[in-house]
Amino acid sequence: MNSLQHLLENNLNWANTITEEDPEFFSSLSKQQSPEYLWIGCSDSRVPANQIIDLPPGEIFVHRNIANVVVHTDLNCLSVIQFAVDVLKIKHIIVCGHYGCSGIQAAMDDHEHGLIDNWLRHIKDVGRFYADKLNNLEGDEKFNRLCELNVIEQVTNVCNTNIIQNAWKNGIELSVHGWIYNIENGILKDLDTSITSAKQIEEKRL
Ligand code: CO
Question: pTM for the whole thing?
């Protein structure tokens, strides 16, 4: 007896529903993917990329990690960005954070969390970079602001990769956006930090 049988049944029902509506859906999608968007979001189970922007399979390329961090030496994330830009020719990269992010919360406390503390160092760095914007805040206000500032910092990190820099140098139209998701009401907010060229990086920096 497969204890995950209910998930396989869910899958079969889902696939059948789509095929009933559009018999060619899977066969045409199987030939190629041509998404316009790359999503870099948190692994949190409450923030599923396709569902919250209501897009079907094939429309968005996705990378998720704890607290949606873009680290200059993370080959996994960099490979996703390179493939998305150079091969899939996506037009928009969305870095999406969320309020109530437990990764951000863990980075704010003084407890030990094991291996992940090394990953969360990057969030602590964001806290240090923006100390002047955070030090006069407390509690949830500080927590929420760090969730937002982390998105803004990761947008800058995406823009500073040689992948994006070279794309812009070669005249490719590509925008990098920063959004934040409210897990209490399901609403996304644009943090007004979209960058479409190398010279905008400094202009948009807080
Ligand atoms: Co999170």
Answer: 0.95
Distance 170 CA to ligand 1 centre (A): 34
Opening angle at CA 188, ends 184 and 190, nearest 5: 140
Ligand 1 centre from 43 Cα, in Å? 6
CA distances (Å), origin 46, targets 98, 147, 181: 9, 15, 10
* Catalytic residue ranges: 42, 44, 46, 98, 101
CB 121 within 8 A of CB 101: no
Q: What is d(CA 90, CA 83) in angstroms, rounded to the nearest whole number?
A: 9
> pLDDT at residue 205 above 70?
no
- 3 CA distance to ligand 1 middle (Å): 28
Domains of the chain: 1-31 (no CATH), 35-205 (3.40.1050.10)
